[in-house]
């Protein structure tokens, strides 16, 4: 029954019947891998690779593969490559130890597995290379400033570099450092950043925009979950926290993210109390949040520790989610058919210069076509005409064609320059917007300080006035005290005089 269903099942037809931006369980027949969370996933050559994870406090070490065309799960049995010149001493190393909270990245024809928590003792982050074709695995030799071993970090591929941020080390110490691995030289380096970085965290997500900006969202510490977004400019190594518009975003950790062009999709996660039911999308160019769809509470897609990847099926981008924990462990595969963008008018033609260049190419093509039609008509009217009488010789036509081709190359060169300028203008505009936002924040801070100082000055003036009144009252009291002192002196003199008179009378009297 399962084999018959697999043979007759067409994922393209099944997807085309789905509504856009809605999650649906993929009808996978047959056996499935054990349910898990905090695993790692990647799509390569139409196959979904699942590695490791955790279940009931036990780390897993298997590699499961789902062929997205045949919908058949299989287990990948790998072994150590003892003949690789890039591996370290593997005499006591396992091919893939039980690991959780690690990262999986596709690099060329290989899968790179980094970091994670495991029972294998290691002081630094281990980089494993897996070849799905030969089933070989090796531990890559790395040098430089190797990062301390950790789990729950984010790892993002930018060209030939891996950008690692944050995580939690084996002593449960939270991290917010940036380490960069050059995959061509296998050398680690530490990025010395400026401005305020994100607070130390783990189980966050990261994305790359325009091959320049690293975005960090959410995650958690040991006491709280976050909903903040931080951006690191990889050229200047400056952190910023820009103003974001759009829908309200709640704190979450253990969520999963994937980018499609300039859109960053975020699925699942939790806040230590319940799972997050909304699927978010951040337009990284406009920095606007929007809710793509929502699921019911305690749904498998409102899980912590799930993964999400993307794949092209029948020309459409599809999100593929697997695993997670939402009160129980999950091993279902869910897909979401993303809504296509409006491509009826390419963005480049919004530039007046580019539109003019396109119009020139169209006009040149029209001129060439009309010339060809004119030649054919005159030849049909009188076949006895010589080629020189037609009005256009093959040499002239060739020259004209070459001129048009040269003009086309010039226009294409101009178009490339315009595109480059547009990209530069976008970067400059983004930098100006960031500067404006920073200045606005600083201005608000200064205004707040000025208001506080003004209020303090008013309070001081009131205190000074009160002290002056007290001082005047003190002068009046001193005058009254002086009068009392004079009265006391006069009274004491009168008493002395009276006492002397009385004593004289007593002394002059007889018996």
Shape: elongated
Q: What does the largest sheet look like? A: 5 strands, mixed
Number of strands: 29
The CATH architecture assignment of the largest domain turns out to be: 6 Propeller
Poorly predicted ranges: 343-392
Structural class: alpha+beta
CATH classification class of the largest domain: Mainly Beta
- Averaging pLDDT over every residue, what do you get? 84
CATH superfamily of the largest domain: Kelch-type beta propeller
Number of helices: 5
Protein name: Acyl-CoA-binding domain-containing protein
Coiled coil: 429-494
Keywords: Coiled coil, Kelch repeat, Repeat
Pfam family, one: ACBP4_C
Give structural notes.
The chain contains five helices and 29 strands. It is an alpha+beta fold. The chain has two domains: 15-80 and 95-337, Neuraminidase, CATH 2.120.10.80; 404-498. Strands 6-12-11-9-8 form a five-stranded mixed beta sheet, with no helix packed on it. Strand 14 (154-158) and strand 15 form a beta hairpin. Helix 3 packs antiparallel against helix 5. It is elongated, with a radius of gyration of 39 Å. The termini are far apart. InterPro entries: ACBP4-6_C (IPR056819), Gal_Oxase/kelch_b-propeller (IPR011043), Kelch-typ_b-propeller (IPR015915), Kelch_1 (IPR006652). Keywords: Coiled coil, Kelch repeat, Repeat. Residues 429-494 form a coiled coil.
